[in-house]
Write a structure and sequence with these properties.
Elements lengths: L1 E7 L4 E5 L2 E11 L3 E10 L2 E8 L4 E2 L6 E7 L9
Antiparallel strand pairs: 1-7, 2-3, 2-6, 3-4, 4-5
Length: about 80
């Protein structure tokens, strides 16, 4: 079985709310293709990093930097399925 996910690349600027924009610092992929992003942003002189579910971030309108990641399943002896 082969699955592909399309995720924002590290370094992509994303929109968190109407007036808050951040940079993707990391991508977390968990069971059942659950994707979350570690995003960092400045608010005045205060810097924050936080995890967001993929539904909570959107492209900032800049050319989309996306990355496809492929997954391959292996059988019990290590051969691809």
């Amino acid at each position: 079985m082969k699955d592909k996910l399309e995720v924002f690349s590290i370094g992509t600027q994303v929109k968190l709310s109407e007036d808050v924009f951040g940079i993707v610092l990391g991508v977390n992929i968990k069971d059942n293709n659950y994707v979350s992003y570690e995003v960092g942003w400045w608010n005045g002189s205060s810097y924050t990093e936080q995890l967001f579910h993929s539904s909570q971030v959107e492209n900032h309108g800049l050319p989309l930097k996306s990355q496809q990641i492929g997954f391959v399943s292996f059988d019990s002896v290590g051969k691809t399925i």
